[in-house]
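Subject: design request, 95 residues
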């Protein structure tokens, strides 16, 4: 079973967010992950959820996703993310 991070992001400081992505993207690769969705082109269908952008990362397993998220390197990068964007995220297990 794969692990998927699904994150809603509202970036308010693009320059600072680019610093975050320059660290996070290589780390994702180290943990065997790939970005399967990274989009601001979102059509609202139902409810009150209206994200400005969505990112979905696919990991080989939930354990690999958790190891990435809990890693010292990612925790440091997440500080940059939190300075530059509001985010909400979940970890989902699926095929």
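Subject: RE: design request

Done. Sequence follows.
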């Amino acid at each position: 079973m794969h692990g998927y991070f699904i994150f809603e992001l509202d970036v308010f400081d693009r320059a600072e967010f680019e610093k975050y992505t320059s660290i996070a993207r290589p780390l994702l690769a180290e943990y065997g992950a790939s970005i399967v969705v990274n989009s601001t082109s979102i059509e609202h269908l139902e409810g009150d959820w209206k994200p400005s952008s969505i990112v979905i990362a696919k990991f080989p397993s939930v354990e690999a996703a958790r190891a990435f998220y809990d890693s010292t390197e990612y925790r440091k990068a997440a500080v940059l993310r939190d300075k530059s964007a509001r985010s909400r995220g979940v970890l989902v297990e699926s095929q």
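The chain has a mean pLDDT of 96.
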